[in-house]
Amino acid sequence: MTAAGRSAGLVAVTGGTGFLGSHTVAALLAAGAGVRLLVRDPARVAPALGPLGLRPDAVRTVVGDVTDAAAADRLCEGADAVVHLGSVYSFDRRRRDDIVRTNVLGTETVLRAAVRSGAGTVVHVSTVGALIPSADPELHAGSAVGRPAEPYLASKAACERAARLLQDEGAPVRIVYPPALLGPHDPRVGDQTGRLRDALRGLMPLWPTGGFPLGDVRDTAAVLAGLATAAAPAPRDRIFTPNRYLGTDDYLAALRTATGRALPAARLPGRAMLPAARLADAVQRWWAWHIPAEYGAAYTCVHAVPVAAEATAGAPVPRPVEETMADTVNWLYRTGLLTRRQAGAAAERTAS
How many domains does the chain have? Predict the structure, then answer.
């Protein structure tokens, strides 16, 4: 047994070389757990874990894809807990086929394998976006699954329905809802980190009104590690991780505070921006370079709502948004993805 009544054991993880995945692996190892990763390419392990101070031989690996039932069975065999993080997070319509295949088929494959294995805890990492659009003014554990008109969010809603079906069948599945996440050490600079970077590079002069829940990747990773290593299953089977709802004006204000930069930007009515964002989405299919005006991002800002306070009762207090942003910007600067001028005051920061 580890501290605070936890039992580490062996935790099987998909998506462990991604942004939230690599931070979760670090948190699991810090808790004393053994970690086994499902990876398509073992060469990705060292670049993902190395910046977090971890050696690749600190984890065991199974080579395979989340859509491969045999590989999923090998991953889950003998595991005390399974954490399914493997998904494609992107609003880029050029990745639509990969999104559906990996997210929907991959989730069904891994969760079924985890239940067959007899793992005591199966954690499916969903997203608050799987619950929008919502008829409720706030999200909570009983919120209905959304039916979003956007490919990535629609795929996560389909995953959500698969996970809830297993819960209805009595499987020990816990569904976790992270918000949009920022923080340092994003191995492949995902959509959320890329959007912040684009804002600092002057590529996003227009923002929609509305907003979305935002959190720190390290806070969510700590919750996932806690669920996977707990001596007893969590009393709740649907869990929201630490977050704060930010309007896009709040987001820009926090980024200005973190960097000390003016960052001039105009905000337009979100719904009025959706047709233009959809057009950009269509053009992106044929355009080789990434267009920052993504329909999925605008759609999220229009439809996202806050998470109810009772839904995060007992969860850690989220760290200040300005701290998360400053650490993210400092990491982008230190890795050469931003210039000193673009990073502003955050270039001098000592990461927390």
Answer: 2
